[in-house]
Amino acid sequence: METPHLSVEVGQRILSKNDKVAMELRGIYAKDNVFVVNLMSSPGSGKTTLLEGIAREKLLNFSVIEGDLQTNRDAERLGKFGINAYQITTGNACHLEALMIKDALGHLRNQGELKEFMFIENVGNLVCPASYDLGANLNIVLLSTPEGDDKVLKYPTIFLCADAVVISKADLVDVFNFKVAQVQEDLAKLKREIPLFLLSSKNVESLQEFCVFLKQKKEQNYVSSHTF
Prior knowledge:
The protein is α/β, with parallel strands linked by helices. It is about 35% helix and about 15% strand. It has a seven-stranded parallel beta sheet with strand order 3-2-4-1-5-6-7, with helices on both faces.
């Protein structure tokens, strides 16, 4: 008599190594009362300039983990403002991973006290960072006006993981004929009803509005629900 074949349906997602470390990081952030923001964008969109503006105006008390293929220039830029910043150089890797962040946290602690906010400035790329959970409370995507207003549907994966979108270099909207309405329309096609900010390093009020949003999310103990 033949033994009947049994089929077992696996309903639970098997966590990858990165996902497991990301879960561990969430616990570390909560224990240290640190609200973590993962900044993602293409190269040159203005992530570091945004952080410089926040530091210059003393709008938030924050630390930074920087990610680049080479050099520690971004960490040095923020260090001039007294920001505790640690640089990760990834070599050829086009993204940061949770284990890198866990290691960098130790270095940040050695350099000074962790602040109530921590920004992770991810490697400039609109593709790879969208696949790696860093345990952040908020995932924010920057889109600069010189890049054009058509990127949301061209690179949907990274915008699908965003809890908010920042249009940076907003003072150049007219120069580049950048249509904010196009970005809003494309986000709606992705069914992303998320906050959209127009920021300019030359407009302090825009930075203040953005930081009020971050403070509100921290008070709410917000944790991103996106599954990478």
